Protein: 6-carboxy-5,6,7,8-tetrahydropterin synthase
Organism: Brotaphodocola catenula
Amino acid sequence: MYQLRTVADFDSAHFLSGYQGKCANIHGHRWHVEVEIQAEHLESEGQMRGMLVDFGDLKRDLKALADELDHTLIYESGTLRAKTVEALLEEGFRLTEVTFRPTAENFSKYFFDKMSKLGYPVSSATVYETPNNCAVYRENK
Ligand SMILES: Nc1nc2c(c(=O)[nH]1)N=C([C@H](O)[C@H](O)COP(=O)(O)OP(=O)(O)OP(=O)(O)O)CN2
């Protein structure tokens, strides 16, 4: 089995609605994402000979997903009042609304699903919220 890994980082703010503790407040992280893909066989011809996929494509696509979140305030749907969202947008702040609580666990599945949808044979996605703590999402295929 061959396995490739690429990484991307993004800086963004979030908060955990309903959390008892400091993470209920808006705070920032440098999120670090690692995505692994795997396959039994390599390409046998042409430009891609001897490769699982081109690292250039893999890193570009993960970076594009990370860039969508970069320097935004990520919030879960329904956890900010409409007038708060409106006021922040009027101030020119970039917001990202997600349908899930923005935890490391949920973001690991987010990146797993997004990269899978792009056609990559993803085996795991790992999201570090802090240098010491990460969540990993994988599926048994
Ligand atoms: N299982 C999870 N637990 C927590 C998550 C999470 O996504 N999954 N997230 C948080 C908070 O967002 C928080 O920012 C991270 O908490 P913490 O480890 O306390 O991070 P700090 O960098 O603030 O740690 P210090 O040691 O206090 O500097 C909480 N839990």
